[in-house]
Amino acid sequence: MQISVLFQAPSRVSNPTLFEQKLSDLHKCTNLNQLKQIQALIYRANLHEDAFVAPKLIASFSLCRQIALAVQVFDQIQEPNVQLYNTLIRAHIQNSQPSQALAAFFEMRNRGVWPDNFTYPFVLKACSGQDSLRLVQMIHTHVEKYGFGSDIFVPNSLIDSYSKCGSMGIQAARKLFMVMVERDLVSWNSMVGGLVKAGELREARQLFDEMPERDTVSWNTILGGYVKAAEMDSAFELFQKMPERNVVSWSTMVSGYCKVGDMAMARMLFDKMSTKNLVAWTIIISGYAEKGLENDAISLYNKMEEAGLKIDDAPIISILAACAESGLLGLGNRVQSSMERNRYKCSTHVSNALVDMYAKCGRFNRALSVFNGMEKRDLVSWNAIIQGSAMHGHEEETLQLFSRMKQEGFVPDKVTFVGVLCACTHAGFVEEGIHYFQTMERDYGIVPQIEHYGCMIDLFARDGCLTEAFRLVHTMPLEPNAIIWGSQNPSGASSIELDGIQKWKSNSIGSTLENTAEKALAAALPSSLCAAMNFPRKVKKGILWSHSGASALDGIRMTLFSQQRAMVKDSPL
DNA sequence: CTAGGGTTAG
């Protein structure tokens, strides 16, 4: 940026030609203050509707994560053209607002502005979430109708987007790939990537072998397939055969060994990496954290800081998530204190991760204070604190938080209801539980999932209403899982399991599972406290727990985490 | 004369 010239000689600003020259790098400006100053000059020079200046201004606001300002610039323009809409759509995607991006696309169509071949790759990127297959199909139809399929970027994007739409999508992607007249490296890579994502590893490998040429992306994609399937021997073989390896190749291998629990191998490869980026560090640290190896994780975290890499949200969030999963309060504290030391500004996402981490590590009060200190909260924040509160046995508080959340205009989702139902189950609020369970579908259109049924069944079972519990098990439109059968009542504690297992055997509901009884009992945590709550995995695995009050929670966790093994309490057998 | 696009690892 050579904007300084502009400020030193403000008189020249009136010269639009020079001004444009100075603005040629505007879209790369990432300094918000500077950007705002330039914006003022642009408006003064009346250039804000200039076809070359406006998109740059939008792009730079988008880069500075100021989507609202980007939209503001856009709204000032009387008759936006295709290019400007493309820029706006891309801005929404960059700021992770895919639905806004789609909205901009539809608005554009309504205002009679025709999309071009640049529009589709952007819009396709915005197609994710529910019903995405239909969206992608719709866009595919557009593309065919208006003949943009001749630009290789468009079908390539379609293949990628279709690949993200599940089993039906991969069918469509295959079909498109087959009929494409011209295929480039990216088409092949996207198709292989799609097959890998769909779990069609053999087919992916076959396609990989058929490729006319391969680049590092191709190799990394198929390597990722083996890693995903935990086939580390094949992955290693491939890794050795690769003509060129980059950070991604190494990181993929490291994450694979972390996944299968071979930390020695993971560490060896990590140490051999010549250039380690943030992703690489995050993978190995999270790997140690997920294994519960807190000291290794912390010492690597320190080394990462010493390496002087500039940290951002994504690694913090994934490390905190690993802490939450394994109950590593020490590492969680370490991450937070380093953020404080570096005056790192916590985004909503990072704060959410902190709330979740503290709650799952048994520090509900700290979770609450992070939550209360947040500038902006989203649905995830509320869900995290509601779950945390329910998990710690603060039933009344959970329900209060729930109504506060609604008062503040948030619409609960299925996760929220898991938390709310759990609180009811734990407190023995049968009437309230039934009420919320009904509300969920009737008022919010949320179809109950296995976790919700789990809460209700547990609610009935704990209240001694075994008939009611069983009725629900048999009438619910879902297959009962081990956790459902593990629901307990406080008095007999074992009646439902034993009965359930007998039923299970006689009905062969669980015929796909071996050692049904053991599995059911091994997972026999009250669903209210575990299944739905994303309890740390270690707790999930082995603990048998009767009707313990929440006060027992910390004690049990401490035992669990210190001994690194499951604790058996009040086992029904 | 000037902008803007796709694939892989967290």
UniProtKB/TrEMBL annotation:
Pfam families: PPR, PPR_1, PPR_2
Ranges for the PPR repeats: 81-115, 184-218, 246-280, 347-377, 378-412
Keywords: Repeat
GO biological process: RNA modification; system development
Single GO molecular function: mRNA binding
Name of the protein this chain belongs to: Pentacotripeptide-repeat region of PRORP domain-containing protein
